[in-house]
Amino acid sequence: MAHDYTALDGAIIDRVAKGCVGFTTLCGAVLKHAESLAAHDPAPPWRIVDRRLQALRKAGRIRYQRKPEGWVPHNAMYRAKPAL
Q1: Hey, which CATH number is domain 6-79, 1.10.10, 3.40.1280, 2.60.120, 3.30.450?
Q2: This prediction's pTM
Q3: Domain spans of the chain, in order of start
Q4: Whole-Å CA distances, 6 to 2, 3, 10, 26, 83
Q5: Is the per-residue pLDDT at 79 higher than 60?
Q6: CB environment 5-16: b (16+ within 10 A), e (fewer)
Q7: Do the Cβ atoms of 5 and 50 come closer than 8 Å?
């Protein structure tokens, strides 16, 4: 049975769009969405969030940066550059 991750993905994207965020902070912010999916999945809620982060990264929607550490929208590096 396929799950609908639309609400969880939207919550992750919304939280990441507000600023660079680490996994623990992000997981806490979207936990209620993950818990609703965990009722039908043997994995713990944090693992569901981790899987969706990787799926969004592979889809090019978000990326992980090292300095400052955390998840950011994929196009954040382009928005941060000053106009010439």
Answers
A1: 1.10.10
A2: 0.81
A3: 6-79
A4: 12, 9, 6, 16, 34
A5: no
A6: beebbebbbebb
A7: no
